[in-house]
Amino acid sequence: MADAFIFEGKTTNEAIEKGLKELKVSKNDVEIKVLDEEKRSFFSILEKRVVKVELKIKENNRNIEEIKKEHISTSHESLEKALVNLNNFLDKWIKTFNDETLSYESKINNEYIEVEFKGEKINYLIGYRGEVLNSLQVVLSSIAGKNIQEKIRVTVDISGYKEKREKILISLAQKEANRVLKTKKSIALEPMTAYERKIIHTALQNHPKVTTKSVGEGNNRKIIIYLK
Prior knowledge:
Layout lengths: L3 E6 L2 H12 L6 E7 L14 E7 L6 H7 L5 H18 L9 E7 L2 E7 L12 H14 L9 E5 L2 H23 L3 E2 L5 H11 L5 E6 L6 E6 L1
Parallel strand pairs: 5-6
Antiparallel strand pairs: 1-3, 2-3, 4-5, 7-9, 8-9
């Protein structure tokens, strides 16, 4: 079923909590349906119990496409092949900069590949509000996924830039949420990348009085913060 995901657990609550955590949503963002909750008999009491639940994303709380992209499963075998593709390219690519301080580290993290570049003066790889970094991420994802059928996701960081940017965005989300509460009016943030919108959505997903949604298309896609 489109926009729906299935999770398992020893109990219904465990399966639901697992799903909410992986999708990074609250109960208000989903419709919950128990698919399989077998009754226990005397003869099956020692058997492992598995409860299956289906969480379907509601359209009015978070951008469905962003959640779906976050929940794409990729096999470890494909990730290992992708890591080889990526390292072969990066080993040659960083030599073209003639910068002895420039280096990179790459590794598999769950279902995607992390790459971090380090150096003395490499802000040019970040660009204005991470524009170059985001473009580099797209290019490296394409290179890593060459001749691989499954979708390969590569995240790129430059000397800890993402952590610093995340703190700024979380602070912005809280500040603007307070402004919405004070003025009782919705606020539109400036256009952001999918990665940055995800940070804002997550920062406010459990807020008791405001919620968020993404609007617009392409590079003009932005977040609206409004009262529940």
